[in-house]
Amino acid sequence: MNYNKFKKKNKGHYVYAYYNEQGQPYYIGKGKNRRYKGVHRVEVPPKDRIKILHDNLTDKQACVIETKLIEKYGRKDIRTGILENRQDKSFPFSPEANRLISKKAKERWADPKSNQRKVSLKVAIKNKKLWQDKKYREHQSRVHKEWARNNRDKYVLEMKRRWQDPEFRAKVLAKRKKIYDDPQWKLRTSIKRKLKWQDPKYRSRVTTARWGS
Fold it and tell me: What is the C-alpha separation between 97 and 134, in angstroms, rounded?
């Protein structure tokens, strides 16, 4: 599969499948952009065993198709079929289900031996390695600057609208206070800033931005 060609023609969500060496699907998913190549709970196969089944979809359309395909092939964990999927559909979750998912995710993150932490570490290492590539850095910089130019006004208006909500404002401020009051966070931040300030280029860039000299 040529991802660049797929990316050019695809403007929305899509549904994809992972196939084993015998040509049998073992996972159905939906996503956007590079999701089909990203970190999964199941093993991601080589490109020649990943197939985009439907593309140019809305999120809701992708959810409907994904659900139908999972129902068609069935799930291994509940002995109805051949897929490694752990849920029949990706929408909509009830408030109770969302709270349960949130609770389980927090428990995984709190566990030092959790696979969630290992996966995140692998992603971080991979991203750091990518960032060493000058062309990659320049490309990312162009993409983010272009996004900022095109979406800055929309983002500012949306944040102003949210900030008018007392509940949202209180939630954000409470989270910030919790972070800022953490002695470990203060220590880590202090060490990082001192190390950065020792770099003449960084120091010059900051002082120029603040005071113009």
Answer: 43
Q: Residue type at 20?
A: N
Q: Flag whether the pTM goes above 0.85.
A: no
Assess contact for 61 and 76: CB atoms under 8 A: no
H/E stretch holding 210: helix 200-211
Using one digit for the tens of pLDDT, what is the confidence trace for 100-122? 878 888 887 788 777 767 777 78
CA distance 168 to 176: 12
Q: Is the predicted pLDDT of residue 173 greater than 90, yes or no?
A: yes
Residue 125 neighbours by CB under 8 Å, 6+ apart: none
CA–CA separation, 81 and 164 (whole Å): 49
Provide φ and ψ at 84, rounded to 5°.
-85, 0
CATH class name, domain 3-73: alpha beta
